[in-house]
C-alpha cells in the first residue's frame, strides 16, 4: 500500500517532466577567423554545384551551407576566404541569376562573386558595392555571358566582422477559437500585430548562400522547352 502511494505521488512529477519542452538551440554565431585552415590559391571547379534542376523548371533555387568543411582560398594579400563554385546551366545567357549571402538571425554570409570561363579564366567580378538587399539575401543579379560557365562565391575578408543594424518589422500572429455563447455562434479568429525594432547582424565567413536561376524562355538549361 505504501508503495502504491509512493507511485501515485511520483506520477505528477513524471507528467511534468514529460511536458517540459527543450529550449531551441542558440542561432549560429558569425565566424570571423579562418586561421588554421589549409587553403588553395585557385578555386577548383571539379566539384561545382549544379544549378540545373533534375526536373524541368522555369525557376530553380539552390541553398548551400558554408561551414568549417567548406574549401577556402588564400588571397594575394594572405587573407583567407571560404568559397563555393556553381556550374551555370547550358545556354547561360538565357537566364537571370540572383546570388548572395542569406540574412540569418545574427549573421550574414559576406559574399563576393566572380564569373569564370570553362578554362578558369576570370571574366568579371562583383564587389560589395554591387550588392543590395534582395528579400532576405544580400545579393547581386546578373545575366551570364555566353562564355561564362562557373560562378565562384567567396566570403569577403574585408567585410567579415562588420556589424549592420537594420530596423525590421516583426509580425506576431495569434489564432484561436471563440466558444459559442447564448448570443453568438463559435468562430475562429486570427490576430496579427506588427512591431518595429532594431536588429543587428555580423558579416561572417560561414552561413548560407542562395542562388536562384530563372529562364527567360523555355526552362532552366532548356531554352526551347515548352
UniProtKB/TrEMBL annotation:
PROSITE patterns: PROKAR_LIPOPROTEIN (PS51257). It comes from the Bacteria. Keywords: Signal. Residues 1-20 form the signal peptide. The keyword Signal applies. This is Lipoprotein. It comes from Asticcacaulis biprosthecium C19.
